[in-house]
UniProtKB/TrEMBL annotation:
Matches recorded under NCBIfam families: PRK05408.1
Bilayer-spanning residue ranges: none
This protein's name: Fe(2+)-trafficking protein
InterPro entries associated with the record: Fe_traffick_prot_YggX (IPR007457), Fe_traffick_prot_YggX_sf (IPR036766)
Organism lineage string: unclassified sequences, metagenomes, ecological metagenomes
Gene3D superfamilies: Fe(II) trafficking protein YggX
A cellular component term, taken from the record's GO annotations: cytosol
Length: 91
């Protein structure tokens, strides 16, 4: 049976993550409140930000920046997006 959560990104019941994506309290918060679809959508956004802004996951400031953007993304607040990205036409 698929586990469901009330997704804070999409504001509806959706299938949840199979396991917390991070260790500790932050991972548990995401596991409890973020759907698998929202997490997948964030992963795509995160890759675009890392590539466009040349972020290094070895740099604490870059990790902090991504964490802030992730929190904004899931809270439906304004967040940075890849400015050069143009979504393909959905046909």
């Amino acid at each position: 049976m698929t586990r469901t959560v009330f997704c804070k990104k999409y504001q509806k019941e959706l299938p949840g993550l199979a396991m917390p994506p991070y260790p500790g309290a932050k991972g548990q918060e995401l596991y409890d409140n973020v759907s698998a679809q929202a997490w997948q959508d964030w992963q795509k956004q995160q890759v675009m930000l890392i590539n466009e802004k040349h972020l290094s996951m070895a740099a604490a400031d870059d990790r902090r920046y991504l964490q802030e953007q992730m929190d904004r993304f899931f809270a439906n607040e304004s967040f940075d997006s890849a400015s050069g990205y143009v979504a393909p036409d959905s046909e």
